[in-house]
Amino acid sequence: MILEGRALTIGYQDRVVGVGLDVRLAKGEVLALLGPNGGGKTTLLKTLLGLLTPKAGEVRLDGAALTSYTVRERARLIAYVPQTHVATFAFSVEAVVLMGRTAYGDLFARPTREDRMVAAAMLDRLGIAALAQRPYTMISGGERQLVLLARALAQQPKFIVLDEPTANLDFGNQGKVMREIRALARSGLGILFTTHDPNHALRAADRAYLLRGGDRLAEGPVKQILTRERLEALYGAPILAIGDAAGMAFIPG
């Protein structure tokens, strides 16, 4: 199964953000999308999810146009973890994760025993089972991000799309999410995530996609694409490369 965008022109009603973008994600692989703020990363994600309609080109899933799937069918195949989420009501953490199960039942139906078992398993997987009965509005930003990932996993999708998944996490939880991304890929899921940290891409991704000003600068195997020269062109700033091919890391120059 493949999620792909072909010759996409992306943007909003009043402006174009990117033109001629081709993106491809297969099950079992991790694709990291890197680029500066305002470069089109989130717009591209939302287009691949069907939240934004492409101005040109097409998004396809398993060989069929994404528009041929119902919203519920999409939810069973693709899960989305946004960068930020503002809670309005004090739902429990368990209730938020259970929302991921609405792809399999009626929105207003009571959760089934299976739904609760799946939700509990995902909370436990991410090490946040102790938060299950806490109000979502009363936990930290980093904990909320892990809850949103648990909600996505509760959908039991084939692909997960994450927008800056480590943005609000402390150092330890950043490592947990990167390890989980690799584990999910090993279990057969396709993972697409955006990041500002090329070291996260080096650690967790199979391929990297560099996007600046709506233009694709490069795409390919992560260790070939992430070079100091390309990162300097991507971010318009000096970059230092530390280490060697066996253990490379990048820091701002």
Portion in helices: 25-40%
Distance between the termini: 40 Å
CATH class value: Alpha Beta
Strand content: 25-35%
The CATH superfamily title? P-loop containing nucleotide triphosphate hydrolases
What's the arrangement of strands in the largest beta sheet? 6-7-8-3-9-10
Give me the CATH architecture, please.
3-Layer(aba) Sandwich
Tell me how many strands there are: 12
Structural class: alpha/beta
Q: Give the mean pLDDT.
A: 92
**Poorly predicted runs of 5 or more residues:** none
The tally of structural domains comes to 1
Describe the biggest sheet? 6 strands, mixed
What fold name stands as the CATH topology? Rossmann fold
How big is the Rg? 18 Å
- Element order, helices and strands? EEEHEEHEHHHEHEHEEHHEE
Number of helices: 9
Query: What is the molecular shape?
Result: globular
